[in-house]
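ok trying this again, last paste got cut off
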Amino acid sequence: MAEGATRTGLPDAFVTERLRATRMTGTHGAFVAAMHADAALMATMGGTRDTAASRRYLLQNTEHWSRHGFGMYVLNERGSGALIGRAGLKRVASEAGARDGASVAEIAYAFVPSAWGLGYAGEIARALVAMGFGLLELSSMTATVLASNGASRRVLEKAGLRCAGQASSVTGEPKLRYELGRGQWQEGESVSTGAHLGGKPGGAAPER
Protein backbone atom coordinates (compact mmCIF):
# COMPACT_ATOMS: atom_id res chain seq x y z
CA MET A 1 0.00 0.00 0.00
CA ALA A 2 1.08 3.54 -0.59
CA GLU A 3 2.49 5.17 2.53
CA GLY A 4 -0.18 7.17 4.32
CA ALA A 5 -2.87 6.22 1.79
CA THR A 6 -5.04 3.98 3.93
CA ARG A 7 -5.84 2.77 7.41
CA THR A 8 -7.22 -0.64 6.49
CA GLY A 9 -8.13 -0.29 2.82
CA LEU A 10 -11.54 -0.84 1.31
CA PRO A 11 -13.35 -4.21 1.34
CA ASP A 12 -13.10 -6.50 -1.67
CA ALA A 13 -16.90 -6.46 -1.91
CA PHE A 14 -19.81 -4.54 -0.44
CA VAL A 15 -23.50 -3.99 -1.06
CA THR A 16 -25.75 -0.95 -1.18
CA GLU A 17 -29.52 -1.00 -1.29
CA ARG A 18 -29.66 -2.12 -4.92
CA LEU A 19 -26.06 -2.80 -5.97
CA ARG A 20 -23.34 -5.35 -5.29
CA ALA A 21 -19.79 -4.08 -5.77
CA THR A 22 -16.92 -6.51 -6.33
CA ARG A 23 -13.23 -5.67 -6.58
CA MET A 24 -12.15 -5.43 -10.23
CA THR A 25 -9.80 -8.27 -11.23
CA GLY A 26 -8.48 -9.85 -14.40
CA THR A 27 -11.62 -11.97 -14.65
CA HIS A 28 -13.62 -8.89 -15.62
CA GLY A 29 -11.80 -8.31 -18.90
CA ALA A 30 -14.72 -9.17 -21.18
CA PHE A 31 -17.08 -6.83 -19.35
CA VAL A 32 -14.58 -3.97 -19.35
CA ALA A 33 -13.98 -4.43 -23.09
CA ALA A 34 -17.73 -4.45 -23.76
CA MET A 35 -18.15 -1.20 -21.84
CA HIS A 36 -15.28 0.40 -23.75
CA ALA A 37 -16.82 -0.64 -27.08
CA ASP A 38 -20.18 1.01 -26.30
CA ALA A 39 -20.26 4.31 -28.18
CA ALA A 40 -23.13 5.78 -26.15
CA LEU A 41 -21.45 4.94 -22.85
CA MET A 42 -18.04 6.25 -23.90
CA ALA A 43 -19.29 9.46 -25.50
CA THR A 44 -18.45 11.48 -22.38
CA MET A 45 -15.16 9.65 -21.71
CA GLY A 46 -13.16 10.38 -24.82
CA GLY A 47 -14.70 7.81 -27.15
CA THR A 48 -14.51 4.05 -27.50
CA ARG A 49 -11.36 2.08 -26.69
CA ASP A 50 -9.95 -0.98 -28.42
CA THR A 51 -9.09 -4.33 -26.88
CA ALA A 52 -5.48 -3.36 -26.16
CA ALA A 53 -6.58 -0.19 -24.33
CA SER A 54 -9.07 -2.24 -22.31
CA ARG A 55 -6.31 -4.65 -21.28
CA ARG A 56 -4.14 -1.73 -20.15
CA TYR A 57 -7.05 -0.25 -18.20
CA LEU A 58 -7.67 -3.55 -16.42
CA LEU A 59 -3.98 -4.01 -15.60
CA GLN A 60 -3.66 -0.47 -14.27
CA ASN A 61 -6.66 -0.90 -12.03
CA THR A 62 -5.69 -4.30 -10.65
CA GLU A 63 -2.23 -2.91 -9.88
CA HIS A 64 -3.84 0.10 -8.19
CA TRP A 65 -5.64 -2.24 -5.78
CA SER A 66 -2.39 -4.05 -4.96
CA ARG A 67 -0.52 -0.82 -4.35
CA HIS A 68 -3.09 1.30 -2.51
CA GLY A 69 -5.62 -1.07 -0.94
CA PHE A 70 -8.54 0.44 -2.84
CA GLY A 71 -9.62 0.95 -6.43
CA MET A 72 -12.32 0.15 -8.96
CA TYR A 73 -15.25 -2.23 -8.51
CA VAL A 74 -17.58 -3.85 -11.00
CA LEU A 75 -21.26 -3.45 -10.17
CA ASN A 76 -24.13 -5.91 -10.33
CA GLU A 77 -27.81 -5.26 -9.78
CA ARG A 78 -28.70 -7.14 -6.62
CA GLY A 79 -32.14 -8.00 -7.99
CA SER A 80 -31.20 -9.39 -11.40
CA GLY A 81 -27.52 -10.13 -10.90
CA ALA A 82 -26.73 -8.33 -14.16
CA LEU A 83 -23.40 -6.55 -14.57
CA ILE A 84 -24.29 -2.91 -15.14
CA GLY A 85 -21.24 -0.77 -14.47
CA ARG A 86 -18.06 0.04 -12.63
CA ALA A 87 -17.15 2.53 -9.91
CA GLY A 88 -14.48 3.20 -7.36
CA LEU A 89 -11.76 5.47 -6.01
CA LYS A 90 -8.43 6.23 -7.64
CA ARG A 91 -5.40 7.78 -5.95
CA VAL A 92 -4.53 11.05 -7.66
CA ALA A 93 -2.14 13.94 -7.22
CA SER A 94 -3.39 17.45 -6.57
CA GLU A 95 -1.72 20.82 -6.25
CA ALA A 96 -2.32 20.74 -2.50
CA GLY A 97 -1.16 17.15 -2.24
CA ALA A 98 2.04 17.93 -4.08
CA ARG A 99 2.85 20.54 -1.42
CA ASP A 100 1.89 18.75 1.77
CA GLY A 101 1.68 15.04 0.96
CA ALA A 102 -2.08 14.97 1.40
CA SER A 103 -3.87 11.88 0.11
CA VAL A 104 -6.52 12.61 -2.50
CA ALA A 105 -8.80 10.15 -4.31
CA GLU A 106 -10.88 10.61 -7.42
CA ILE A 107 -14.41 9.23 -7.62
CA ALA A 108 -15.06 7.42 -10.90
CA TYR A 109 -18.18 5.65 -12.15
CA ALA A 110 -19.77 4.52 -15.40
CA PHE A 111 -22.91 2.55 -16.18
CA VAL A 112 -24.22 0.77 -19.25
CA PRO A 113 -26.99 2.78 -20.98
CA SER A 114 -29.74 0.39 -19.87
CA ALA A 115 -28.97 1.38 -16.25
CA TRP A 116 -29.08 5.14 -16.81
CA GLY A 117 -31.70 7.25 -15.09
CA LEU A 118 -32.33 4.80 -12.24
CA GLY A 119 -30.36 6.59 -9.53
CA TYR A 120 -27.55 4.02 -9.40
CA ALA A 121 -24.79 6.59 -9.91
CA GLY A 122 -25.93 8.62 -6.92
CA GLU A 123 -26.28 5.50 -4.80
CA ILE A 124 -22.73 4.31 -5.46
CA ALA A 125 -21.21 7.81 -5.29
CA ARG A 126 -22.63 8.42 -1.80
CA ALA A 127 -21.38 5.02 -0.65
CA LEU A 128 -17.88 5.66 -2.01
CA VAL A 129 -17.67 9.07 -0.35
CA ALA A 130 -18.66 7.67 3.03
CA MET A 131 -16.44 4.59 2.77
CA GLY A 132 -13.52 6.62 1.45
CA PHE A 133 -13.52 9.09 4.32
CA GLY A 134 -14.57 6.48 6.85
CA LEU A 135 -11.96 3.84 6.01
CA LEU A 136 -9.14 5.67 4.25
CA GLU A 137 -6.81 8.46 5.37
CA LEU A 138 -7.95 10.84 2.64
CA SER A 139 -7.76 14.57 2.99
CA SER A 140 -10.19 15.14 0.13
CA MET A 141 -12.04 13.60 -2.78
CA THR A 142 -12.31 14.94 -6.28
CA ALA A 143 -14.03 14.21 -9.57
CA THR A 144 -13.96 15.64 -13.06
CA VAL A 145 -16.95 15.93 -15.35
CA LEU A 146 -17.83 17.51 -18.67
CA ALA A 147 -19.39 20.91 -18.09
CA SER A 148 -22.24 19.83 -20.39
CA ASN A 149 -22.99 16.67 -18.39
CA GLY A 150 -25.69 18.02 -16.11
CA ALA A 151 -26.79 14.60 -14.88
CA SER A 152 -23.33 13.65 -13.63
CA ARG A 153 -22.83 17.08 -12.07
CA ARG A 154 -26.04 16.60 -10.06
CA VAL A 155 -24.84 13.17 -8.92
CA LEU A 156 -21.64 14.70 -7.53
CA GLU A 157 -23.44 17.59 -5.88
CA LYS A 158 -25.89 15.26 -4.15
CA ALA A 159 -22.91 13.25 -2.88
CA GLY A 160 -21.57 16.43 -1.27
CA LEU A 161 -18.95 17.56 -3.79
CA ARG A 162 -18.87 21.15 -5.00
CA CYS A 163 -17.51 22.71 -8.18
CA ALA A 164 -13.99 24.03 -7.62
CA GLY A 165 -13.25 25.36 -11.10
CA GLN A 166 -12.06 24.25 -14.50
CA ALA A 167 -10.28 20.94 -15.06
CA SER A 168 -7.77 20.11 -17.77
CA SER A 169 -9.20 18.51 -20.89
CA VAL A 170 -7.28 16.59 -23.56
CA THR A 171 -10.21 16.85 -25.98
CA GLY A 172 -10.73 20.59 -25.59
CA GLU A 173 -14.29 20.14 -24.38
CA PRO A 174 -14.80 22.14 -21.14
CA LYS A 175 -14.50 20.06 -17.97
CA LEU A 176 -15.11 20.95 -14.34
CA ARG A 177 -13.38 19.80 -11.15
CA TYR A 178 -15.49 18.90 -8.12
CA GLU A 179 -14.06 18.53 -4.62
CA LEU A 180 -15.05 17.56 -1.07
CA GLY A 181 -12.67 17.93 1.89
CA ARG A 182 -12.65 15.70 4.94
CA GLY A 183 -13.62 18.60 7.21
CA GLN A 184 -16.57 19.51 5.00
CA TRP A 185 -17.71 15.89 4.97
CA GLN A 186 -17.42 15.61 8.75
CA GLU A 187 -19.44 18.78 9.20
CA GLY A 188 -22.12 17.38 6.93
CA GLU A 189 -22.16 14.09 8.82
CA SER A 190 -22.86 15.82 12.10
CA VAL A 191 -26.21 17.05 10.82
CA SER A 192 -27.07 14.22 8.42
CA THR A 193 -28.80 10.89 8.77
CA GLY A 194 -26.86 9.54 5.78
CA ALA A 195 -23.50 7.81 6.13
CA HIS A 196 -22.18 6.84 9.57
CA LEU A 197 -18.83 5.34 10.45
CA GLY A 198 -20.31 2.90 12.92
CA GLY A 199 -23.07 1.66 10.63
CA LYS A 200 -23.49 1.32 6.89
CA PRO A 201 -21.48 4.05 5.16
CA GLY A 202 -23.69 5.71 2.61
CA GLY A 203 -26.02 2.73 2.75
CA ALA A 204 -23.13 0.35 2.06
CA ALA A 205 -22.14 -2.70 4.08
CA PRO A 206 -19.43 -5.36 3.67
CA GLU A 207 -20.73 -8.19 1.54
CA ARG A 208 -21.33 -11.39 3.47
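PB: full thing came through this time. Residues 1-6, 96-100, 191-201 have pLDDT under 50 and may be disordered.
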